[in-house]
Specification:
The complex is a heterodimer of chains A (about 325) and B (about 325).
Chain A: E1 6-21, E2 26-42, E3 46-51, H1 57-64, E4 72-77, E5 80-81, H2 87-96, E6 97-100, H3 114-124, H4 130-143, H5 160-172, E7 178-182, H6 190-207, E8 210-214, H7 218-224, E9 227-232, E10 235-241, H8 242-247, H9 252-259, H10 266-271, H11 302-306, E11 312-313, E12 319-320
Helix pairs in contact in A: 3-4, 3-5, 4-5
Chain B: E1 3-16, E2 19-32, E3 36-41, H1 47-54, E4 62-71, E5 74-75, H2 81-87, E6 92-95, H3 99-102, H4 109-120, H5 125-138, H6 144-147, H7 157-169, E7 175-179, H8 187-204, E8 207-211, H9 215-221, E9 224-229, E10 232-238, H10 239-244, H11 249-257, H12 297-301, E11 307-310, E12 313-315
Parallel strand pairs in B: 3-8, 3-9, 6-7, 7-8
Antiparallel strand pairs in B: 1-2, 1-4, 4-5, 9-10, 10-12, 11-12
Helix pairs in contact in B: 4-5, 5-7
The chains are: A alpha/beta (about 325), B alpha/beta (about 325).
The complex binds adenosine-5'-triphosphate (2 copies) and magnesium ion (MG) (2 copies).
Chain lengths: ~325, ~325
Amino acid sequence: MDKNKALIEIKNLKKYFPIKKGLLKKTVANVKAVDDVSFTINKGETLGLVGESGCGKTTTGRTIIKLYQPTSGQIIYGGKDIAKLSEKEMAPYRRKMQMIFQDPYASLDARMTVGDIIGEAIDIHKLMTGKERTERIQYLLDRVGLNSEHANRYPHEFSGGQRQRIGIARALAVQPEFIVCDEPISALDVSIQAQVINMLEDLQNDMGLTYLFVAHDLSMVKHISNRIGVMYLGKMVELCESNELYKKPLHPYTQALLSAIPVPDPEQAAARQRIVLEGEIPSPIDPPPGCRFKGRCRYAKPICSQQEPVFKDLGGGHFVACHLY
Amino acid sequence: MEKLLEIKNLETSFYTHAGEVKAVRGVSFHLDKGEALGIVGESGSGKSITMMSLMRLLSDNGKIKKGELIFDGRDLAKLSEEEMQNIRGNEIGMIFQDPMTSLNPVLTIGDQLTEPLIKHRKMTKQQAFERAVKMMTLVGIPSPESRMKQYPHEFSGGMRQRVMIAMSLVCEPKLIIADEPTTALDVTIQAQILELMKDLKEKINASIILITHDLGVVADVCNRINVMYGGMIVETGSTKDIFYNPKHPYTWGLLKSIPNPNEEERERLIPIDGQPPDLIKPPVGCPFAPRCEYAMKICMTENLPVFEVGENHKAACWLNHQDAPKVEPPVGRRNL
Ligand SMILES: Nc1ncnc2c1ncn2[C@@H]1O[C@H](COP(=O)(O)OP(=O)(O)OP(=O)(O)O)[C@@H](O)[C@H]1O
Ligand SMILES: Nc1ncnc2c1ncn2[C@@H]1O[C@H](COP(=O)(O)OP(=O)(O)OP(=O)(O)O)[C@@H](O)[C@H]1O
Ligand SMILES: [Mg+2]
Ligand SMILES: [Mg+2]
């Protein structure tokens, strides 16, 4: 597969959430959840997205598949800018782009059986009916490690991890091209994580799927991703091939992040040294000028407060936004 | 060591249209003061329900069928709802697995944080406010004063989780039950929260029960681990026993599933084949036997005994019987 051909090009994407006050609901400020990010997702690859909680990963994913209307910027999907398309014009793209959600509790309709939840997606896109539909539901349940009796039960009868697998089955039901996986495995035990990751990899190989994979478990992100992007406070600060990121992290935030990965080994865990991030976590409502990380950076220089670092390729597709380079 | 908690033979079931779901099937363990116990295991194995039983927070169709829940000298199974309310959030702080449903959507974050302090600790509003702001800072929420006025839906997933953590710690409880407390957090904030919990453990000799799928987190925080499968504890031991000398094939399977941190080319992960047991009709004998590559005939026919395999190290697996064939465990960890 040609992993160097772009499926999606994101250019200067912004998503602001207005904060409204008073009777007239006047916008008094904006939460700059995603603030001018540009990157490419290649066909058939897995792009990992990591970063501090609240830095805008979920918002980036949701905006790319137009669950949120972007504030500005371009989303070029298979050559066409879909950023400004109307809901009607979006229709053919809706099936191609699916999402697996972060919160397995809130994302499943409590009044529907599991079979209906998965079947609904099939029905919306009028893909199959009757026996074929039933078989497809059973096949999907089996693929995500549930059994066919589960089709008649309701979400509240399942554990957190089991519910997450239902969400995955639902996303797969419509045979999409691109899936935003927003922490799809954080609720699962490691053995089922391995099952799901293998499943996502197999599906990718079989159908040429492309993933944007958001997660906090950096060892799993490294395993599944071809390339990884690191976000900090609405900005992309580093992006490169995944082995390269772990061997040669350039941005000081990436370095701190990697040093804090928990190691599943009690002796190593006791011996390791973490880079502890000092300083106040800045707010996306009123982000500081210059580099957004400077207040917590060990290497901050005067220029970091004055000028925003440019996100640039240092060679070989290793992008970083930092005045050190 | 003084015992803070002892659970004896707990059985909890849910009554559904499909039948009785036997979620917890005879769980016994104890916790000393100042100890950090990790609970790991299959999703759906009853980790959360064991703790919800202890807190007496089961949904209406759930019932404790049997067992004692001795906490600090009292059997919580026998207390009235009113007495339980004095324990929850006060003597026992709990961080729930799903922060959105456990925060009240119509109350501000500030109200939710100060309420237990006013109720249980008899603080004034002002004192409670200051203490709550301090907790918000400790869990890494910027501009805590203005955030106190906001509602849960205005927070990101990880921020809500941190509020939950602040809430559970605000009264400095004797026991902190943390159910997947850091799954929605990035590793730097996770590290900060884990340090905070460890500090509290040192400072007020609090005990911690930590449920997590992240074996790195248990390795870091816990001194003892229970491994659960199919509503039972299948292995229990010190953290080092579990990682370096595990005695149950399910534990082996868990450890084998972790991705190799040093892989260069993508290596295929090794999950445990097969399906988890149906808790409406749990299998006779060992719940793991149908998926176990070492299973013997006896595993599927006899009641499962627990074997002492070392000091404070027990495993519910026939392989530890003296007459069983010797098998070479496929783990400790790859790099050991
Ligand atoms: N619907 C919304 N309305 C207002 N603000 C929002 C909304 N969704 C997100 N935000 C804000 O946007 C910022 C980014 O949130 P987002 O959920 O994208 O973060 P994240 O990187 O996915 O974090 P986490 O790792 O905690 O899931 C946060 O400050 C959050 O409070
Ligand atoms: N309200 C309910 N009605 C019926 N069955 C339930 C209910 N709540 C939980 N169960 C069942 O009880 C079993 C134990 O669930 P529990 O939530 O304790 O799992 P867990 O070990 O915490 O899993 P996870 O790691 O996925 O959170 C599961 O099989 C689940 O399906
Ligand atoms: Mg998110
Ligand atoms: Mg649970």
